[in-house]
Write the C-alpha cells for this entry.
Amino acid sequence: MRLLLAGLFIFLTSCTGQGLGGFVVNDSTSGGSGDGGALEPKPRPCAVLSSSYAATLLDVAQRDGVRVFYTTNPADADVLPDLTDADGDGVPDYVENILRQAVHARAAYNGLGFRDPLNSPRYKAFGVKFIDIHVRAMADNGLAYDEAITYDNNPLMKDVCGVRIDLSNNLASFPGTWSVVAHELFHLYQYGYSMFKQSWFLEGMTAYAERVIRVGGVKGMGTTTLPATQNDLDTLVYAVPYNALFDRLAYLAEQDQAADMPLNPALFAGAYTDGSLIFKDRLLWGYPLIRKMLENVEEESKKISKEKSWDPVSWAESDQKDAQYQARVMRAIMKAVRDSNLATGGVAAEVNAFLALTPP
C-alpha cells in the first residue's frame, strides 16, 4: 500500500500542467457550503458493497475529482492487457488516456452549462465525492451506474462515496476516435437531473452528447426527420435506444453551425499521451435546448416524487424504468422545444406535427 500511495503521489505531482491547468470542473469537494456559510444537511449513507473484482483494483490514477481504478497484477482477471507507459510516470497510458478524456469531457459539459453530477441534489444528498471509473474485463465497452456507492473490501474505495462507471480494459486502439468515456460520463449527468431510466431517453440523448469530443455538431448532420405519427414515435423513438430524435432537434435549434463551443480555448489543446487531440473539432449544436430538456425532465421527476410520496433522490429501480412515465418525459422534452420556437420557416410543419403527438 505504501508503494501504491507513493506512486499515486508521483502521478499527481508530475501531471501538473498536463491536465486542465486550473479549469474548475467541480466545487463540491472544496469544503465550502457555497451559500455564504450555511450548513448543508448531513449526507445520507451511501450503499456499501463488497465485490471480488473491486478488491483487486488496487491501483488508482486521480485528477479533478475523477478516480480511475485498475490492476496491473497478472494474476487478476481484470489486469490491463497493455501496460505501456511511454512517459514512465507509473501510470499505464491506457489509464492515463481514460482519465484525460473524462476530465476534459467533464470540463466541457460543465462549461456548456450542464450541472455537474456531484453538484446535483441527488448525489449531494449522499455526499458523493468522486466519479469513479473501474477498468475491467467486460463484454460491453462501458456501463454507467446511478447508485451512490462505496466498497468495504478495497482500502482505496472504502469510506468514500462515489458514482461508478465500468470501462473495458481492452478497447481496440484506444484512444483513437473512441468517445465511450464521454458517453458514459454524460449518463451520470442525466442521473443527477432525474430518476428516469428509459433507454430511449438515456441513450438517445447521450449519443448526441458524446459529440462534444467527436467530429460533427450532431451525428449524421441531423437529417433524420422528427416522428410525425404515434407509430413513428413508438417505433422510431421509444423502441430505439440510440434514436435520432435528439440529434435532429439539436440540429434544428442551432443558429450558427460554424460557431465554436464557448469554452476556454486552452481546453481544446488537451491531448492524449500519443499527442492526438481529445477534441476532434469544436462543435456541438443545440446544447442549450438539450440542457433545457434536462431541466424540464428534472421538474417532472420532482412532480412524480411528490405525487407518489417517493423519496425524490431514491426511486425503486422498477419505477425508474417504468414505461408509463415515458409520455411525461416526452412532454418535458416537447415543452423545451415549444419554448425554443423551433416551428418556423421550412421546418414548421415537421416540428408542429411532432409536437402534436403529445399534448402539453
